[in-house]
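User: Is it possible to get a 3D structure for a protein together with its bound compound? The compound here is arginine. I've pasted both below.
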Amino acid sequence: MLSTIAQLRAAVQQALIRAFGEAFATTDPMLVSASNPKFGDYQANVALSLAKPLGQAPRAIAEQLVQNLDVAELCDPPSVAGPGFINFSLKHSFLEEQLQAIRIDPRLGVEPLGAGKRAIVDYPSPNIAKEMHVGHLRPSVIGDCLARILEFLGYETLRISHLGDWGTPFGMLIAYLREAYPNALNDDSAINLGDLASFYRAAKRRFDEDTNFQDTARQSVVQLQAGDPETLKAWGIVCDLSNQTNQKIFDLMGLKPLILRGESFYNPFLSDVVAELDRLGLLVEDQGAQCVFLEGFTNKEGKPLPMIVQKSDGGYNYATTDLAAIRYRVTEDQVQRVVYPVGAEQSNHFAQIFQVGKRAGWIKEDHDFVHAPLGNVLGEDGKKLKSRSGEAARLKDLLDEAWLRADPDLYQLVCEQDWEAIALVLLEEPDWETAAARLSSDESLADNVAALKKTTIETVQRQVPIWLMGNEPVPSVAQPVVANIRQALEQRWVENRGLGAERSFQSILSDVQAIGISAIKYADLSQNRTSNYVFSYAKMLALQGNTAPYMLYAYVRIQGIGRKGGIDFSELDAKSPILLKEDVELTLAKQLLQLDEMLLMIDQDLLPNRLGQYLFELSQKFNQFYDRCPILQAEEEDVKTSRLILCHLTAKTIKLGLSLLGISVLERM
Ligand code: ARG
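Assistant: Yes, that's possible. Here is the predicted structure of the complex:
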């Protein structure tokens, strides 16, 4: 089926041909939603842009178009307004027909415009010698969402994580692995390095303490680059550990599976890439380095800026690797489209590699390589979000805290307990002063006993929901407290969440987790991806406003109507008519019919916040409908059925929309 806007567009295109001839067959009708509902539903602005080429007044052009428009089926007679806008008001009968059509369409009226094309979304591409931090929230969440949308639009979509898995940062970890776990290299059988965080911390402590160790670390980098088998093996172990740690976080976030194709993957191609640039005459030697001089980029003195692709010591860099990736994606993956949701601070990098990719002939006319720049996540102080100890906040901590706070009872109970003694035991320290002194290499914590105490206690608190979930063993010192919390929660949940016959403790806890994680993802997705935003648990978890809980709740409310009326929505008679009588019904209907045009816009500008905004408005319009129109109590049977159909379509649209954002609906809250 054709969406509403597509049908209108086709009609205006016909009118253009009839009025002004075939030459205007491809003129864009410039059709947009009406700036004000007072003027109708849509407006075409094409008359204004034709004034020059036609040498006529825009109003006169608009009048001629209106005379040639054949839209009687779709809307009331169009009118010309202002300098030459053409306004359209959709007919109720047309809206009813369109709704009937999307009712039986599993795609809810969305055209698969990407069918037959292949796309890559390059995300979240962390540097894996370190733990993921707040900087990885946006690429993960937005990358996952864009990939879901492109996939739904029909593109065969590859999710490729361009991991920073090579080079200097690995030296320290490799050296530490060899020293602390000498058996790891000979014996593959389960050597437990613990988690990356503690492994990294231990390695860093060693590195800071001992200058000999620093030399060993540097040698390891040289050996790694020279392809020494044993070093490569150690490197592989560290990468595996890191990828496993990260995968747990991705699972918690509900990301779709990624293809791990890090920088190291392109090592074999780097010399080729440079040789090809040389053959093409693009290379210039500058102070011993091989460079491509960029067009449109200048240095401080106004001279053309070089992009180094091979350093004077023969080594390659981030840009060379990305060029190899471009070439590989075009020639081997055969993609038409590549999207890089990466921090805005890398805008120059991407503009430069795309330029070189084009000049080298890898990126052709019909390829679409775009950087989708991302803003930063800020703390209340307006600076990049930090943890208490002053480093970038760990991604895992943010997720766990969102989850802890997603149930006010859980949060309150956890905060009430006395964690200090437990935290010390878990830290394996006699007191906080000793702990702070011993952790001296943990930079900012050293002289800040209070901060260490607070951070440690918070870390333990964040673990509580995980312990309650039963996926990880509870350390014996914490067992009594955790058991108490569970008991108290059970009591409260019997009263306010229907714990007992209906629902199990575990299922409620899973929902709490889902709400927390959805909230943090949605808070990110609902912001324009190019701007910075201030991170706030209170805001993201609020039941009112443009939040995940608000949207989830709208869905739950509809399921509640079904349960209350003993209705299975999917069983509603496919032939029974949709009747749009009340204003709130019309408003809801129009919103339901705009899913397609909204997704087409995202296809162009890659702004997922459009989808969030759309769903927010849909939920609001649904709530207005729900407040004003009796549903189960409707007087006439056909009105009741029609309203139930509207409920069902709204629920399906919210469910689909949220799933494209990477959020699963809940059946009850
Ligand atoms: N690893 C990089 C970083 O953490 C991001 C890589 C983005 N993707 C790419 N193809 N350059 O900054």
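The chain has a mean pLDDT of 93. The first strand starts at residue 31 and ends at 33.
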